[in-house]
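User: My advisor asked me to double-check a structure prediction for Dehydrogenase/reductase SDR family member 7C before group meeting. I don't want to rely on an old file, so could you generate it fresh from this sequence?
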Amino acid sequence: QTYAPKLILLDISDISCIQDVAKEILNCYGCVDILINNASMKVKGAVQSISLELDKKIMDANYFGPITLTKAILPNMISRRTGQIVLINSIQGKIGIPFRAAYAASKHAAVGFFDCLRAEMEEFNISVSTVNPTFICSYHRQPAPGNWEASIWK
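Assistant: Sure, here is a fresh prediction for Dehydrogenase/reductase SDR family member 7C from the sequence you gave:
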């Protein structure tokens, strides 16, 4: 069956709305065959210059967001004993580089979670893949002095 596309907006760093979005998707289509987690947020700066607030925002977007969405969709895949989950991550989930501590930490955490998930989902015939590309060009805004939010890469 072919479905008309439906646009559903989601801020992956806003953990509180992810469950509702997943329900909306499942109510609309009945299932998700392939879930591709591809949202990301990063910031460049020395560890001592990045606030704990920003560290948490990066962790929400890059770790808690994808796992929250995955956990919301997973019961449907398990009950159907089929599905594919993909995490588009980063090479920095395998190696860290200077001035990217929060980003690298969030990507390391995501790799660990999805590696464990892969092993657990094998019995349900659900494929879990992690893609770790090297450095890519992405949209960036130059920050105003003192405006850490503007220094976020999206």
